[in-house]
Amino acid sequence: MTLSRRNWFGWATAGALAPLGLLARRAFAQEAHPQPAQGAAPATEAATPAAQPTGAAARGDYTPVRTLNGWTLPPRMVDGVKEFHLVAEEIEHEFAPGCVAKCWGYNGTTPGPTIEAVEGDRVRLYVTNNLPEHTSMHWHGLLLPSGMDGVGGLSQPHIKPGETYVYEFTLRQHGTHMYHPHADEMTQMAVGMMGLFIIHPAAGEPERIDRDYAILLHNWALHPGTYRPDPSVMQDFDLWTFNSKVFPAIDAIVARSGERVRIRIGNLSMWNHPIHMHGPRFAVTGGDGGRWPRALWRNEVTEIVGVGQTRDLEFVAVPGDWAFHCHMAHHTMNAMGHEIPNTLGVDQSGVEAKIRAMLPGYMAMGETGMAEHQAHTESGHMPGPENTLPMMMGQGPFGPLEMGGMFTVIKVRDDLARGDYADPGWYAHPRGTVASRVDASTLGEPVRRVAPPRSPPTHEATPVDHSKMHHG
Ligand SMILES: [Cu+2]
């Protein structure tokens, strides 16, 4: 403690008063971006300088990352080292109201709390294992000594139930990184053990980031009617999540018009996810290896975030309500059934009556598509098994959104206060800027390639006249 105070005063006098200014700025930033459990961070950080002051004037002056639906673990400064304590434990997790499960996570949540630090920080990470089996902790993407890499059996002994291990290293990079066990990974990740590790650049950002969001992608085999994710499933998952939540339980991404927004995305699921943003293009500005040189930035509207990868997307906010989602259509559904026969276009009326004689309440689905699913669910026609969610959910200002899973809305408004993250409701579109219904009879005959069918298609075998088929 004495040593730490001496270091502090030595550094403060040698480095003039710059640190005081930056500490004040950081305290303000924390206050302006309130998040659960972040309250204690500014005071503890203000008490001690970071271990390796770089002398950069902007050191530590960053916009705190906002983990959508999640939280950031407050560090404790001990002798100039930033300490974090993660506790691996069983938790009860709610994916959305009506769907809960026994999961494994850290410090009460899945994903675990986000760890946030600055390039050059010395960090000490305690990991306590309160699980019934051994675990370990891998710091995904971090440059560190081999023995701190957390591969159970390879770089360290496993952390047995009841034990606590300590990891300590200096952060020699910045960017979007992750943490997860490297022990019985198939089980421990399948049930939710993962988190984000965000490192801000010591020299500050080349372009000021006004809002810095972070999302961890995952998938869950939580079969309808069950309460524990199934770790043995490899492809047919039931829930697709941003920070372990499904739409519509996922918070909106909120920004003010003209602000520069970054969305950091990490993927510890079992699928690659093409993440798609409506509205403005974004620039992909970084990945696992940190922020890319500006010459490598590229404009996209969809970016694949591969398994085990991270990507940073940045854009200047444009007013409106813009969908932000995975473009794998099944990944914006909840609680998929996987062995459903394809009934699209099938007249099921006779079948439905026959089955209903044996299964009262049975309702055929999908004749004209699946949109009827949400309508039936919401009108109470279709009670599903317990502890599951409808495939399609969410009400928008114009009707059902028919979404689930990896979907949320970027809500950009002109009149938001800086640092206001409250959901502003639905966008008030300027007059004349909303698609609307017209009388099609005034439009004349649309140009078609082939004549429309004379009668609705049926599943009766129809003779095909091959001589009339056109190719090309
Ligand atoms: Cu996806």
From TrEMBL:
Pfam families: Cu-oxidase_2, Cu-oxidase_3. CDD domains: CuRO_1_2dMco_1, CuRO_D2_2dMcoN_like. The keyword Oxidoreductase applies. Residues 462-472 have a biased composition (Basic and acidic residues). Residues 33-61, 437-472 are annotated as: Disordered. GO terms for molecular function: copper ion binding; oxidoreductase activity. Coiled coil: none annotated. Residues 97-202, 234-340 form the Plastocyanin-like domain. Keywords: Copper, Metal-binding, Oxidoreductase, Signal. Residues 33-58 have a biased composition (Low complexity). This is FtsP/CotA-like multicopper oxidase with cupredoxin domain. Residues 1-29 form the signal peptide. It comes from Chiayiivirga flava.
